[in-house]
């Protein structure tokens, strides 16, 4: 006996039908097996069958033919047959998607219990008015067809929740759209719509509205009445501005207006739930303080491919910001205040003519960039930012700071207790960090006189430690437990030496020791073979040991500004791995200041020329 091949339905939940489900008279009828299954489940899936017309049996699927009537007449109530007529249910879900259907029969009104109708990806230009008699319809998918307007029958579907009309040829939205006032999800993307009627404001229950890839030049101010709107997609239109009334959309969470003609940030003052704002590929030239005040709760801010030349210091007002994309703008610098945003995880900067921030700093990624920006801020500047409207929390003078919970720590992988006025590290913070397996800690700008001893528990899991701007006099030997450590920042402390155990940090790439009291470059650093950056400006270093520095084959950045170096050995010029050397503000006379200002290449060439032949 030969086996019969079965074809899987494209959508789950509708079973499998044999290739011969259609009778062979021009595919005008359904196989009894399919009819039987539809009557039992209330669902019929005829998608992707190459249909040019819908079999008539579909519209009368509940009616019995002559053979079925005979069977019914021969049954009694005690029959155990699985085909008992009293067990059948009305059709509630009909899928006719991915065919070549160009017309739907007015008999569709026979399916009065239908709640879901999927006709996407066909060749329909119209639908019968009788469609409006399907009063239980809640989900209608007409996408990827050839409609020039919204079919009349839809305006009578008072229970419709989901309407998909994307990828058609619709040019005008009828005022009667307000009659479908139970809509929750409305997709009109990829049409030819130029205007929206003011009556769209009556669709107060819509949470998702997609109007992307149309020809909209303006939006009606009545859009502000769509109180339930949470996601609004307007990408790829011709919008030069958004109405100020949009600021009343208090439930709006995501706004996409990429690829339009906006010249400024829209007014969104009362959109207190706005989490994502996508304004890339517009003509915006400025991000102002007022703009920042309008979007204070934003987590994601996409401003890529605009013409922005400056980001204001008041960017600190975006205290919840997690992602900032300013790719391909005209920025030559960034405000140092950006470095204090507590939740910022990603900054995308590519394609900007940066002048004041070195390329190697940008290449470090977001963590390295933000660390650099923070290191350039003084306490006085932070106070000034606060006065000028930045929402930086003041340093607490009493009481315990809030401890981040384990969930937050697990998400961010960063324990940030910067600027909390701490003199001791709370044990609870350490325990939470340990359980969440955090990889970075920031305890900068506190009042630690000693390295927190309870940190010993979490040091083995850390990649990044920031204890800058405290009052540390020494670093404990248990720092050697940090086998994974790549970044250390002990700047702005009172260090006179480092423990030799730091030489065992085989993965250390960057160490910042600026503004301490170190008399020499600590010996232990010469054992850190992967060191790429040493920032040790503003100390008391009086001499350079070039032979020891030469051991650091990956050292690329060496900042020795404002020390007490009396002589620069010419052999320093042979350390060709150094891309940046900063020597300004020392006691030596040669190289002269005129050479120093020419940059690292000129200084290294000068030194090589002075090596005795």
What features would you describe in this structure?
It is a single chain. The radius of gyration is 35 Å and the shape is elongated. A hairpin with a 7-residue loop joins strand 1 (6-8) and strand 2 (16-18). With 613 residues, the chain is mostly loops. The protein is built from twelve helices and 23 strands. The model is unreliable at 1-27 and 387-400 (pLDDT under 50). 14% of the residues lie in helices and 11% in strands. The strands form three sheets. A 13-stranded parallel β-sheet has the order 3-4-5-6-7-8-9-10-11-12-13-14-15. Among the domains are: 1-66 and 86-170, Leucine-rich repeat, LRR (right-handed beta-alpha superhelix), CATH 3.80.10; 472-609, Ribonuclease Inhibitor (Leucine-rich repeat, LRR (right-handed beta-alpha superhelix), Alpha-Beta Horseshoe), CATH 3.80.10.10.
Summarize the structure.
This protein is low in regular secondary structure and 613 residues long. It is built from 12 helices and 23 strands.
Low-confidence stretches: 1-27, 387-400
How many β-strand runs? 23
Helical content band: 10-25%
H/I helix tally: 12
Question: Major β-sheet, in short?
Answer: 13 strands, parallel
Q: Strand share of the residues?
A: 5-15%
Over all CA atoms, what is the radius of gyration?
35 Å
Distance between the termini: 97 Å
Per CATH, the architecture of the domain at 1-66 and 86-170 is Alpha-Beta Horseshoe
Structural class: little secondary structure
What is the H level of CATH, i.e. the homologous superfamily of the domain at 1-66 and 86-170?
A: Ribonuclease Inhibitor
Report strand order across the widest sheet. Answer: 3-4-5-6-7-8-9-10-11-12-13-14-15
What does the average pLDDT come to? 86
CATH class of the domain at 1-66 and 86-170: Alpha Beta
Overall form:
elongated
Per the CATH scheme, the topology name of the domain at 1-66 and 86-170 is: Leucine-rich repeat, LRR (right-handed beta-alpha superhelix)
